[in-house]
Amino acid sequence: MGAGARGRNPFASWWPLLLIVALAAVLVAERFLFPDELAPFGAQREMMDTLVSISLYARDEDEAHTAMETAFARMADVVAIASIHDPNAEAARLNDTGRLADPSPELIEILEAAIGFFAATKGAFDVTIEPLLSLWQYDPNVELQFWELDTAAQQEAIEAARRLVGSDRMLIQGEPPTIELAPGMQINLGGIAKGYVVDQGIEALCESGIDHALVDAGGDIAAVGGKPGGAPWEVALRDPEGQADEIVRFELRDGAIATSGNYLRYYDPEAQVGHIMDPRTGFSAYVASSATVIAPSCTEADALATAVFVLGPAEGLAVINKLERVEAMLLGYDDPSEIARSAGLDRYEVRKKDGT
After folding, report:
1. Which residues pair with 250 in a beta bridge?
2. What DSSP line would sit under 139-156, residue for residue?
3. What pLDDT shows up at residue 268?
4. 108 domain-assigned
């Protein structure tokens, strides 16, 4: 063997490969140690007769777009299950037949949660309220609308409808499960489904790798992760007598907030019959002008805001104070400036620079 062969470095041919591996390691380390800066993105869609918006932070537009499309699709799937107006939806088919075999896990989850809230609020929240709500709907085929009838006629019809109401009479049993309603009973998921839809949107975003997001469905709001850097998301509570004015701002990092009120939607042209009914009486609830609830999930916040609105300040806060990580604020009916707060609400309130 010649001297040149004996003096050659046996590792010389490995240097290019080692260099490539080293550069790849540097790029990977840079990706994890110095990731791209998060940027804000957002999108809106019409859903559930309201505008649903997503706000999030992502590293690029493609990541944000994919996550938002996935979340909107997940939310639309739940709407297609929980609607009582779409004849193909599971909830509508349940109302039509009184029985639904092998329902989706989402509908079961919504109804089981609703039964729990019915018990916790002693009937102030009840998804089987549809027979009562139907009485107050505008009917073009009658001479007098229900709100135009005398009190005795109203009370008679309400008493008949109330015999068809009671979430504790819904049955979810068997494997695969079957949902059964008592004869004549019908459900309306308007007080809980929107919150559940928002929760599903947040869950889909998290599964897509998003750590900082907020979903707002017409005031039913859930947030995760706060904003990058630790700042919270801020949510304003409007004055029902002057929607341009803020009463208070709340901050959220992980959790949800929902507000119920009878000041925007009414059954009658004179705006005397609010759309939130007390299932225990069959009449509109008039003990508060709005009720706001902060809770770990939007499903909880949505249902409890409806229940607390029906119960009013004293009974409503009594329910809230028994629940962990749940707070509430109620505005008086005759005087919205009369504000009732749960004990721990102040930790969510945004303080101004002067401390107020």
Report:
1. 235, 349
2. -TTSSS-GGGS-HHHHHH
3. 64
4. yes
